[in-house]
Amino acid sequence: MSIRSLTRTPLRLALGLSLAACAGAAQATSIAMYRDPNCGCCLAWLSHANEHFAKLDGQLTSKTIDSENIAAVKADNGVPADLVSCHTAIVDGMVIEGHVPAADIERLLTERPDGITGLAVAGMPLGSPGMEMGNRRQAYQVIAFGPDKRLVWSSYPASAQ
Question: SS3 for 143?
Answer without folding.
Answer: strand
